[in-house]
Design goal:
The chain is of the alpha/beta class and 725 residues long. Among the domains are: 267 residues, Leucine-rich repeat, LRR (right-handed beta-alpha superhelix) (Alpha-Beta Horseshoe), CATH 3.80.10; 151 residues, no CATH class. The protein is built from 28 helices and 24 strands. Helix 23 links the parallel strand 19 and strand 20. Helix 22 packs parallel to helix 23. It is globular, with a radius of gyration of 30 Å.
């Protein structure tokens, strides 16, 4: 077979080897752990032609993340001087000493350079400072750490800032675009002196055309001070644009636009652009074709045919398949991705009346309800247009909707006999006869669902959607005064995932239908329950059951759930539980085919649940358990946010070691021979060289791999990938 020309091989390999520009420019913590999906070394080893063609592509974008990488690259460029000619974009994520000088001086064609000012005292920036005047880039991206208690100030940062300012003012005559991070963070963590020096330098650049601010502070009360900082950067008379990576709606919501009238220079230049999501740019549609104004689409066909055609087009354009796939396949996700998608779908309603009529059924498939006003409005629309009620597949309620749901007489929604808006909710559920998913979003560790369903509303749900409902999550059902027949659940013939939050007492009798009741149920989540619920579930066949979650978050004693594991343990593949609130002796022996165990826990000096984790892991022997997942709620709270920065940038190594050492230093996994992964549901891997040597996560990952052949992974399921030292 004849070889392909180098030009074609180049086009084949380019998408694989390229680093996306949005990743190269990204200043968020996730970008510091970017890794290509395919090993570049594997591509180089395919054949000599691929080696020859891919080498220039490989060197086009260089990312330095450790001293070891910098030293190795410096040696390579000394030996093969032509390789330096290929470098166009250089991302330097630290100081890295004189090796950086060797790299930059060997790469005179650098056009884009990324430099971090998040440096510590041991970092050596002499090589970088010496090399900067030797290049003349077109684009400069600056990175800062703006989430510390106070700004970083040390000799390496000062030296690098002075060198940057000097180059910007007089050396870099090709500089057209500069990315600066000073519209983010809080007022107290903003390095105002450093920002002022850089603003002054950029003001004197005669070639600068555009300044890009990589985000907008999420703290509304800091936006005014950041706007003043932005104004200082807008003083360059040669500037043509200031781009703020935030949507105009976000800027308006955070009060930024109200400050612009008093800053004419900034107001004249500023443009807003929503940040890219998912690491991919939206494809631009080339609408270069010409259409006569008198032309009417589908004019020659009937209105019914037009409606069918537009409905089919909008089904794809509005990504209805995404909604349906989510409903069918995702049992546990609460719908965050769909909320973002639904906001984009609203634009289709503004095109024309005909398209609005065709788009409404698709839009109504997913209904997020975030306030009482939206609840009433949505209910009113369904009353006026009952045909739309049949289109609703997913009702997504905010946890307790909002404070406005509770009038003054309901200071505590758990008091009193009547539920606010209960009639609206009952009527709404009675209308949605094709509903497949009902979720009420959960909140913090001690949260409870204040939007409670009355038993009447629950009955309405069964009568209207019992044959279609697949998922019921988060709904707290108010227990009626009398005992209910468990045969009530015979009406839910399709349900796959049920989260039960109710103290309702049930009577189990022979009319239940042991073999058919809840026969489709794959997952049962027990958050609040009466002991009769456990008794009834243990008597059913539940042939599809594979997952049991125990989410009782009160500190009281609860009825044992062991009857469920005694009856159904051999079928269960996944168990999720809140550590410390579940006493489950013999869990591993009862669930002989268990593959995944998830432990949700509190971690901190005041919570003794570190021992609880070990108790669950050391509870017995299992030849099937492959994965243990640990979720710690404290990692997501503001109280521990800075210390639990996951050692990515600023994490407190001593605090993390003190908190987690009792777990990882005492793990004994002899009784779990099939275990291959322990996953922690937060970011644990460091993103800069300073954190590499101090991170206890890396040490524990190495110990686990060496001793037990078990991978320690982060929230994305990725193990640690070592860096050159």
């Amino acid at each position: 077979m004849p070889a392909l020309p180098d030009e074609i091989v180049n086009e084949i390999l380019k998408p694989v080897l390229r680093v996306p520009d949005e990743v190269f420019c990204d200043t968020s913590p996730r970008s510091f752990n970017f890794k290509g999906e395919i090993s570049t070394s594997a591509i180089l080893l395919v054949c000599k032609q691929w080696l020859r063609v891919s080498t220039p592509l490989l060197f086009e974008v260089v990312i330095l993340r450790s001293n070891g990488q910098a030293k190795v690259l410096a040696r390579v460029l000394k030996t093969n001087k032509q390789f330096g000619q290929f470098i166009r974009m250089l991302r330097v994520e630290g100081g890295y000493g004189m090796a950086v000088n060797t790299i930059i001086t060997a790469a005179p064609r650098i056009k884009d350079i990324f430099i971090t000012l998040a440096l510590r005292s041991p970092d050596n920036t002499q090589g970088l400072c010496k090399a900067l005047p030797t290049i003349n880039p077109c684009r400069l991206i600056l990175h800062e750490s703006l989430d510390l208690r106070k700004p970083l100030v040390n000799a390496p940062i000062t030296q690098l800032t002075d060198s940057l300012c000097e180059c910007i003012k007089s050396k870099w005559t090709n500089l057209r675009v500069c990315y600066v991070p000073y519209a983010q963070g809080s007022y107290y963590t903003l390095p105002r002196a450093r920002a002022s020096l850089l603003a002054n330098a950029l003001r004197q650049s005669e070639s600068l055309e555009e300044i890009v601010f990589s985000g907008l502070s999420s703290y509304t009360h800091y936006v005014a001070s950041h706007t003043t900082t932005l104004e200082a950067f807008a003083a360059n008379p040669h500037l043509q644009r200031i781009l703020l990576m935030a949507s105009s709606a976000d800027a308006d919501a955070r009060g930024m636009t109200q400050h612009l009238p008093r800053m004419p220079n900034l107001a004249r230049l500023i443009q807003f652009q929503a940040p890219l999501t998912g690491g991919a740019q939206d494809k631009e549609i080339d609408d270069s074709g010409w259409t006569a104004k008198s032309y009417a689409h589908l004019k020659s066909v009937s209105e019914d045919v037009q409606s069918q055609i537009w409905s089919r087009i909008l089904w794809f354009a509005m990504e209805a398949e995404t909604t349906q796939a989510f409903i069918n396949d995702s049992l546990t996700d609460r719908g965050g991705n769909l909320r973002r998608l639904n906001r984009k779908r609203l634009n289709f309603l503004l095109i024309s009346k005909q398209i609005q009529r065709a788009a409404l059924p698709v839009l109504y498939r997913y209904a997020p309800i975030r306030s009482v006003a939206k609840l009433r409005s949505f209910w009113g629309e369904l009353c006026l247009h009952p045909q739309l009620a049949a289109e609703v597949r997913f009702l997504d309620f905010e946890n307790y909707i909002s404070a406005e749901a509770w009038p003054d007489e309901y200071e505590d929604p758990t008091d009193g006999d009547e539920e606010p808006e209960k009639d609206v909710v009952e009527d709404l559920l009675s209308l949605t006869n094709n509903l497949q998913r009902l979720c009420i979003s959960a909140g913090g560790y001690m949260s409870f669902c204040r939007l409670r369903l009355t038993w009447t509303a629950f009955e309405m749900l069964r009568y209207a959607a019992g044959g279609s409902l697949l998922v019921l999550h988060g709904a707290e059902v108010k227990a009626p005064d009398d005992i209910q027949e468990f045969s009530f659940f015979n009406g839910f013939t399709a349900i796959r995932s049920l989260e039960w939050r109710s103290k309702t007492s049930f009577l189990y009798d022979d009319d239940v239908g042991q073999a058919t009741c809840l026969s489709s149920l794959e997952e049962i989540i027990l958050a609040d329950y009466h002991e009769t619920m456990i008794d009834a579930l243990s008597k059913l066949d539940l042939p599809s059951l594979t997952t049991v979650s125990f989410r009782a978050r009160s500190f009281g004693t609860r009825p044992s759930v062991m009857p469920i594991f005694t009856s159904h343990g051999y079928k269960i593949l996944r168990v999720k539980l809140v550590s410390g609130h579940a006493v489950l002796p013999d869990l591993l022996s009862l669930c002989e085919n268990l593959e995944e165990l998830m432990i949700e826990t509190l971690i901190g000096s005041s919570y003794p649940q570190k021992e609880e984790i070990l108790d669950h892991i050391h509870a017995g022997e299992s030849n099937s358990l492959k994965k243990i997942i640990i979720k710690s709620d404290c990692d997501d709270t503001w109280l521990h946010e800075e210390r639990y920065k996951s050692m990515t940038e600023n994490g407190d190594a001593k605090y993390i070691s003190k908190t987690w050492a009792p777990v990882f230093n005492n793990l004994a996994l002899d009784s779990l021979p099939a275990l291959r992964e322990i996953q922690l549901l937060w970011n644990i891997w460091p993103i800069n060289q300073r954190a590499y040597s101090k991170s206890p996560w890396i040490k524990w990952a190495s110990d686990l791999k060496t001793a037990w052949n078990v991978d320690l992974t982060d929230v994305a399921g990725k193990p640690w990938t070592g860096r050159l030292k």
